[in-house]
Automatic annotation (TrEMBL):
Free-text comment about domains: The N-terminal region may be exposed to the interior of the granule, whereas the C-terminal portion may be embedded in the membrane. During phagocytosis and degranulation, proteases may be released and activated and cleave BPI at the junction of the N- and C-terminal portions of the molecule, providing controlled release of the N-terminal antibacterial fragment when bacteria are ingested. The N- and C-terminal barrels adopt an identical fold despite having only 13% of conserved residues.
Entry-linked PANTHER family: BACTERICIDAL PERMEABILITY-INCREASING BPI PROTEIN-RELATED, BACTERICIDAL PERMEABILITY-INCREASING PROTEIN
Localization: Secreted
Native source organism of the sequence: Xenopus laevis
Domain (Lipid-binding serum glycoprotein C-terminal): residue spans on this chain: 267-470
Name by which UniProt lists this protein: Bactericidal permeability-increasing protein
UniProt keyword annotations, A-Z: Antibiotic, Antimicrobial, Disulfide bond, Glycoprotein, Immunity, Innate immunity, Secreted, Signal
Quaternary structure annotation from Swiss-Prot or TrEMBL: Monomer. Homodimer; disulfide-linked.
Signal sequence annotation: 1-22
GO biological process: defense response to Gram-negative bacterium; innate immune response
GO CC terms, sorted: extracellular space
InterPro entries membership: Bactericidal_perm-incr_a/b_dom, BPI/LBP, BPI/LBP/Plunc, Lipid-bd_serum_glycop_C, Lipid-bd_serum_glycop_N
Family stated for the protein in its record: Belongs to the BPI/LBP/Plunc superfamily. BPI/LBP family.
Amino acid sequence: MELVCRLTLAFSLALFVGATNAVNPGFVVRLTQKGLDYARQEGMSVLQQELSKIHLPDFSGSTKKQHIKFKYSFNSMVIRSFQLPTSQISLVPNVGLKLSISGAFIQVDGKWKVHSKILSGKGNFDLKVEGLSISVGLQLGSDASGRPTISPSDCSCHISDVKIHVSGKFSWLVDVFHKSIDNALRKDIEGKICPVVTQSISSKLQPLLQTLPVTAKIDSVAAIDYSLTGPPPVTAQSLDVQLKGEFFNIAHRTPPPFSPPTLSLPADPGLMVYFGVSDYLFNTAGFVYQSAGKIESYITDDMIPKNFSVHLNTSSFGILIPMLSKMYPNMLMKLKISTPSAPFLTIEPGNLTTSPIMEIQAYVILPNSTLAPLFLLNLTTTIMVKVSVNSGRIVGDLELSRIEMELVHSDIGPFSVGVLNTAVNYYISSILLPEVNEILQRGYPLPLLDHIQLTDVIIKPSEHFLLFGANVQYG
Ligand SMILES: *[C@@H]1O[C@H](CO)[C@@H](O)[C@H](O)[C@H]1NC(C)=O
Ligand SMILES: *[C@@H]1O[C@H](CO)[C@@H](O)[C@H](O)[C@H]1NC(C)=O
Ligand SMILES: *[C@@H]1O[C@H](CO)[C@@H](O)[C@H](O)[C@H]1NC(C)=O
Ligand SMILES: *[C@@H]1O[C@H](CO)[C@@H](O)[C@H](O)[C@H]1NC(C)=O
Ligand SMILES: *[C@@H]1O[C@H](CO)[C@@H](O)[C@H](O)[C@H]1NC(C)=O
């Protein structure tokens, strides 16, 4: 007994430690009640179509009335209409979702036959099934590939009333034993509905969830991991789908040297879906490209507009640094801009900034095309980042707001870096950033299911994450 207790205790502790050690997501998709209601509406029309296709098998039996045996059969039954006027989806905290349908009704047409020793009759009938209610639980989980799963549980179905109306010769015969027929038909139809409901969930909803792009390839270097970190937690207000939200190097993945912060999405039920994009996602991007040596760019004279005063040649620069034109008269120059460390994005309420440290190495291009180093500058910058959502992608735009320079090393003797202010400001804000912005305008895909479009998008920088809110359109 004591051993069992100890084992149970150890196991609970392990679970508890496991839970507190759980990795924060880098990306959260929050579905609100409004979003679930929209999904329910879309789902109801699919379910209605599926239920209308139910095949009701022929149905026969016999009964005795005043020592006379009657055999009856009902056949060629066709569902003329299957209406689901009222439905509701509710969040069941820590469990999942519950779909309840009430007041549904069915209209069925068919043929009847009654046969006995003394008389027989046949004709048509129409059947009204009323007060049909269906209740089904939806359990949410995640599979080995990190995609969301949904499975039906506890389906129940109840019909409160079946009304049969018969026509044809001796139709009163049916009325004589309609009670037993009503009951049998009710049982029959009740038994057909839950299998169709659970089958629709497995064959229509589950495949849709499986379209979540768990790996979104960005370019030849990087991809985003959008796999689920675990089964989606459900509270009374919302359903959160927690994704890893991490850039990784396609060729060789290494864990980033920092972890995702806790995201606390506000309880704002105004829109259908909210996306919380952690600064972790952006910072893993910086880490991946930096480690792959991809944050490096060159500026050459042909990139500088004709009308800009400072050209990348030693005559032009020689006006600012006279030593330069003396040592290397009339030669072209080239700049290499790189970041010695991965740039970090800071997300605060109200604004997004990144303050990358950049290095500019200047070279002169010798007549035999080799590069001779001239000087190395250290730049501390502040760049404002504007983000928006365009066709389901996060797009960005950078704008330089501050730059400070330091001369780290010179091969042409000492000079005051202040003389380079205008030129360097121009190169960064008018040549480098537009190039980066062109890449950022292509954007990064949000993890959306197939056929989902976002409307009414709002964006709100919050502490450590960007909050996007939107309404959804399916189709
Ligand atoms: C250079 O010319 C372009 C138009 O061709 C103009 O937009 C830009 O402001 C000019 N730049 C300078 C520094 O005069
Ligand atoms: C250097 O740039 C100036 C404009 O600032 C231009 O007049 C000159 O021809 C250029 N020299 C070379 C070698 O390209
Ligand atoms: C960004 O927002 C913070 C907090 O509101 C503020 O302190 C800071 O000055 C802002 N930075 C810029 C560049 O606007
Ligand atoms: C290019 O010219 C420079 C200076 O004249 C010389 O030091 C260097 O060795 C030359 N490089 C090649 C590859 O010829
Ligand atoms: C470059 O600037 C950063 C930030 O000001 C500083 O931490 C770093 O030491 C500087 N590097 C050199 C080589 O001066």
